[in-house]
Amino acid sequence: MGTFTSEAAAALTAAEAVCGPFELEEINNRRGSAVWKASGPQGVASIKLGTGDAAEVTAREAAVLDQLPEYTVTVGRFADGVWYVTPWQAGPSTWDVFRSVRKGVGGKAEALAAAVGLCRAVEDLHEAGWVHGDLQPQHGIHTEQGVRLLDFAWSRPLGTTPWTTFDGTMIHLTAPELAARIINGPQPVETTQTADVYALAGTLWTGVTGTWPLDYETAGLGRGTPLDVLRKAIAHRAVPLSTTMPWPSLQARLRHVLLAAPDDRPTAAELTRLVKAADA
Q1: d(CA 117, CA 200)
Q2: Which of 87, 127, 177, 250 has its CA 20 to 30 A from that of 46?
Q3: Res 162: pLDDT
Q4: Residue 1 covered by a domain
């Protein structure tokens, strides 16, 4: 584990305002972005530091959090970086909630309720005029107050493009039309609500099976396949969907979303209703 930089001491002061005297734990640190958890008698806070290229991304994410009513954030700058502090979202991720389903030991009722909750969180974000841009199994936290989404670095209000270049996020959950735009340009490529719905369906599929929705092995794309090769195959729909179907009632609905053309893809609100109707 690393050492918290003294240059961002103001972030610790902001965290103490949330938590009181706290203990600090590093959660992750990669590619210039570090997340720390501050735990104290008054609460728990997340401290995110971005340096180098990650500084702009961190600042952008803080700006999104500041505009969403369910979140509070304090932000500042240090040396070559940006920090922000926000209350910790306590609860299991969507990936965690589906663990019993993946193990085949039950848990479908709980998982289905979580899936509906995640869909509603995305539905609410979309109805408020936003695109998330990076939905993944770990980016929905199921709290006592409802589902809270995480990782808003590639989120945007409709009608704005707050970046100059978008090269994609999780390739395995990238909608084909978005992959094609990344390949063909022009930049800046905009994330879309329809691509969010594709990623949302893929997130739930992955929660059920433990594997990505696309069957790379059948397409001859093994481990170590370069990212640009994967992206081109996805853009051309050259990778079939997996045939692993341990939960047919739910996965048939997700399969419909993943195979649909963008204009035929359900909205997040429609997907909420589809998922809710699945058998537990």
Answers
A1: 12
A2: 127
A3: 85
A4: no
**The residue type at 40:** G
In a domain, 154, yes or no: yes
Domain count, the chain: 2
pLDDT of the residue at 1: 59
Residue 250 pLDDT > 90: yes
In a shared domain, residues 65 and 153: no
Q: Are 55 and 183 in the same domain?
A: no
* Euclidean distance between CA atoms 255 and 253, whole angstroms: 5
* pLDDT for position 110: 97
Residue 178 structure tokens: 């978005």
Q: Model confidence over 70-106: pLDDT tens digits?
A: 999 999 999 889 999 999 999 999 999 999 999 999 9
- Residue 250 domain-assigned? yes
Q: Do 71 and 20 belong together in one domain?
A: yes
Note whether 50 and 129 are same-domain residues. Answer: no
> Mean pLDDT over residues 222-247, rounded?
96
Per-residue buried b or exposed e for 140-174, using 16+ beta carbons within 10 Å of the residue's own CB: bbbeeeebbbbbbbbbbeeeeeebeebebbbebbb
- Look up the domain containing 38 and give its range: 6-87
